[in-house]
């Protein structure tokens, strides 16, 4: 019996670098957890996943390995990714299956080989009918945008592994830019900053917390400070230092500049009629990166366009993918076409 024998309905998956979200038809979003597993090195058995695995991160002993099977928005470890999908599906425990269809959101810039890896992971987990949809298209649907209309809409989805920039009209993507620069890259910049400038080693969880608490894209009215705990690289002892939001903003600036540059490049490539639509409608920000303080203001300054942050940027993609699975026939024309090998 395949793992998807646990399901009562079709499902939609936002298989993200940072988080995996699962939507069950008729039930809504039933799972939102980190895309992370803890493996027993001896038995190769999954001992924790999602939130439990994240709690272990940075604190595991030599016989436990914490793995993130997705990097830059795509599968980096095929075997672990398949096991993670199986475990998440088993975790939601929704009864006996009546349909075996899944729609999975993927970055718009994935290669054919990467698309195949996602399909294979789902098929090996027991699904007979696997469909893919680009994340910007799914986000637009999740935001309630009429993607079939002859009107241009620009979506900027900033996730953990990728930043997806797309102009959508008539059920298709007119222009797209996919950058492997997003939340994870910002976290790495923070880790390297403390190592280089303060001789202190911090982990990914600490870097993420610093970014969320004091990170910003523009100067703040009241600049913030945070106590950072790590290991002193000189004497090996625990150490606490204080840093300001000004310092963190400076080191995040390189990533933000690349994102704003890609947005401008995308705007330069679209037909003038669509440009007129975007002047009127503005840019929609989704994904966890949209929550960075002042990012909408920064993009507004760089593009001279209205910028709107989604009401719930973290779930826009999975909600859109869910709408596709809820009304599959209506939205089938927005799916990524399958290629046979």
Summarize the structure in words:
This protein is α+β, with helices and mostly antiparallel strands. The protein folds into three domains: 3-35 and 71-138 and 316-334, ATPase, nucleotide binding domain (Nucleotidyltransferase, domain 5, 2-Layer Sandwich); 145-181 and 258-309, ATPase, nucleotide binding domain (Nucleotidyltransferase, domain 5); 183-251, Actin, Chain A, domain 4, CATH 3.90.640. It is 38% helix and 27% strand. The strands form five sheets. A five-stranded mixed β-sheet has the order 3-2-1-9-10, sandwiched between helices. Helix 5 packs antiparallel against helix 7. The longest helix has 25 residues, at 245-269. It is flat. Mean pLDDT is 90; it is low at 1-7 and 94-99.
Q: Order of strands across the biggest sheet?
A: 3-2-1-9-10
CATH class of the largest domain: Alpha Beta
Run of helices and strands: EEEEEHEEEHEHEHEEEHEHEEHHEHEHH
Low-confidence runs = 1-7, 94-99
**Average pLDDT number:** 90
Structural class: alpha+beta
What is the helix fraction of residues, given as a range?
25-40%
How far apart are the first and last residues' alpha carbons, in Å?
27 Å
How many helices?
11
Oligomer description: single chain
Portion in beta strands: 25-35%
CATH architecture of the largest domain: 2-Layer Sandwich
Say how many strands there are.
18
CATH topology of the largest domain: Nucleotidyltransferase, domain 5
The name of the CATH superfamily of the largest domain reads ATPase, nucleotide binding domain
Main sheet summary: 5 strands, mixed
Radius of gyration: 21 Å
Instruction: Give the overall shape.
Output: flat
How many domains comprise the coordinates?
3
